[in-house]
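[recover] target loaded
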């Protein structure tokens, strides 16, 4: 298999969509990064319709920008990190909210508290 860099972003996203759809058919927990959600909307909607749980881990701008890292070597850090993060979040939010059954605001939570909130959403 050749590397994703030889496929370009379109090839990477196609592969990502296939892998997510396959993973949703197995038991367990699947944590998706932001772009993967956009690529898997149909699969996530089918998963929820079949009784699966989709949790959006939300974060405020104030808490999210430092987590991303202002100097990280990734696209969100090109130009103004805050502006890029805000634009990306605004563009993706409707998709995330569309597929999520539960939203957990992680802005002021520890990792343990996030896990507890997610588990709590599963036992309702």
């Amino acid at each position: 298999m050749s590397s994703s860099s030889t496929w370009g972003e379109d090839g990477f996203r196609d592969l990502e969509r296939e892998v997510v759809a396959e993973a949703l058919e197995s038991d367990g927990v699947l944590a998706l990064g932001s772009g993967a959600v956009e690529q898997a909307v149909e699969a996530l909607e089918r998963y929820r319709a079949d009784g699966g749980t989709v949790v959006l881990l939300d974060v405020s701008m104030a808490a999210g920008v430092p987590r991303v890292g202002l100097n990280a070597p990734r696209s969100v850090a090109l130009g103004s990190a805050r502006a890029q993060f805000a634009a990306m979040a605004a563009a993706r939010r409707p998709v995330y909210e569309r597929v999520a059954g539960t939203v957990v605001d992680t802005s002021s939570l520890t990792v343990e508290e996030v896990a507890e909130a997610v588990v709590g959403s599963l036992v309702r």
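[recover] notes: Strands lie at 55-58, 102-105.
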